[in-house]
Each structure stands twice: as C-alpha cells, then as structure tokens.
Amino acid sequence: MADFLGVRRAFLLGAFVVATSCVAAPSAGFAENYPNKPVKIIIPFPAGGVTDIAGRLIAQRLSERLGQQFFIENVGGAGGNLGMEKVAHSPGDGYTVLLSSSSVTVNPSLYAKMPFDVEKELIPVTKAGGSPNSWLVNPDFPAKSMKELVELFKKAPGKYSVGSPGAGTTPSLSIEQLKFDLNVNFVTVPFAGGGPMTQSLLGGHVPISCGAIGNSVPLIKEGKIRALGITAKKRLETLPDVPTLDEMGIKGMEAETITGVFVPAGTPKEIVNLLQKEIATVVKSPDIKARLLEFGIVPEGDTPAEFAAYVKADIAKWKRVIETAKVPKI
User: Fold this and answer.
1) How far apart, in whole angstroms, are the C-alpha atoms of residue 233 and residue 244?
2) pLDDT of amino acid 46
3) Which of 240, 295, 310, 313 has minimal CB crowding within 10 Å?
4) Sites in the chain below the pLDDT cut of 70
5) From start to end of 138-270, where are the E strands?
6) What pTM was estimated for this model as a whole?
C-alpha cells in the first residue's frame, strides 16, 4: 500500500511539473515571437494633434521594421483618461500600447478621482520625445522679450489676457506657475485646444499665449507669431534664435509636453525592451527626427528605467504646481 501511495504521489508530482511547464512555455515563446499579429496604439486624444501626428509617424515605421501592422486608435475624452484607462485595463500582452501626452503625469493630481493608477497599472516604455512650452505674442504686441512681458504684467495687474490650450495641460500649469513664482496677475483664457488658441493669437484677440511649441514652429519662422521664450533646458535646433526662460533669468520653469509610450502592467519585460529599442531607433532615424523637430518634438528614446524615473518625478512636480497654485480639481 505504501509503495502504491508513493508511486501515486510521484505520478501526480510529475503531472504537475509537466502541466506548469506547459503553462509557462507559451509565455516565453509568446514574447520571443512578438509581434505575430497587428498591434493597437491608443492615442487618448482626437486625431490631428501633435501627439497623434507623432504617433502615426512612429506606427508606420514600426510596421515596416517589425513586419506587423501597428495601427492608431484615437480614444478621446476626460482629458485623456478614457484612452489611458482603456490601455491600463487591457491584457499585458504587448498588443495594446499607449502613446500619450503629459496628461499621464498631470491627471493624477488634477482629477479628483482617477479611473486607474498610473504608477501601478501602466509600465513606462520610453519617452519618444518632448515638446517644450512656449510663450508667444502677436507680432503687434509691444513686448519683444519675456522680460518686457513680465514688466507689463507687473505694471498693470489684471489688464492682460493669456491664452492656454485648455485646463490641465502643461502650458496651463506653466501659466499658473509663472503667476505664482513671479507674483504677477493676468487673466487666463482657456481654449478648447492649441488650434483655437493659435487662431485667436493670430487675430490679436488674445495677443499672448502659452502653448506647446509644436503647433507654432512654422508660424514663428514665417514671422506671423513672435516667440518670447521656451520652457526647455536648451534651445531648439529648429528655432535657435528663441531663448529659454532659464537663460533669461526666469528659473525653475522647465516644462514640456511629452510623447510617452506605455503598456499595461504584466507585459513581459522582453516585449517592453523590444518596443523601447525599436521606438528609440525610429525617432532617432534622420528622416523621422527631422519630421518630429518640425513639430517642435525633440526625439529621445530613453530606457524603461529612465522613463519610469522621469514619470515619477513629473507626477510629483505637477502635484506641487497644482497644490501651490491652488488649481481647482476636475
């Protein structure tokens, strides 16, 4: 009887080992064979914006390089939360990817209730690029520099209006930070996106604005808009004559709108690393880099670990700005 029980236990143990091996094996092979079907890239905003344009450039080149279609699905709404939530709650199999702006780091502090946890339910893959914010004026506006603009704000508190592309965007938060840090007062006019804001700026209706520089590069080069400064660590290759706020003595204002890539929690590390490597190669290729720079996006392609550290720091940064400036929660 004892021999029979021993044999039975050995048989069951062997069966368990075989069963678990069969379960584990497809996971490893799955990552090795990735991708073997089309990959969906969700952009949590309507089509036509800078994030969407960058996403389509990257998706097309990934399709060519990896032999499977990478296609864009625009899921707008709730400041990007609807699309980001869809990715966060998707299977971690590498076939649903998020390409988002800085909403992913701003919204956790801006929204009273988030439908998902950015740091627990999304894995940072890479920052494909970043577009600094820019302070812009209509060419007929008297200020020729950021210093002159700040002086005007101080001489006439509440007189001037500054356009933003919408509440909760990094430009709107840059506006609030400037108000608080420099103790200036003016009226903020939120628009429904960068397009309407730029049209108002061109028409001189709201002659000052702060927005991501991407939409304005061609207009600045044509002299239709004057750029007073950008919120970057260094000047842009495409706009070498536009100074940074830092070099003008306005410190601590660095801010950008990222083009960030994420996947759902649980995605195999091999897939995360492959996507990072491929996307970094794509954005640094001469033709794609040139196209991205046209839209004010500085290509990067940092590692998952570097991007994870960036995301954590950016969440903390915007939390400080939102709390310090007493920005109302949505």
Assistant:
1) 7
2) 86
3) 240
4) 1-30
5) 161-164, 187-190, 208-212, 226-230, 256-264
6) 0.86
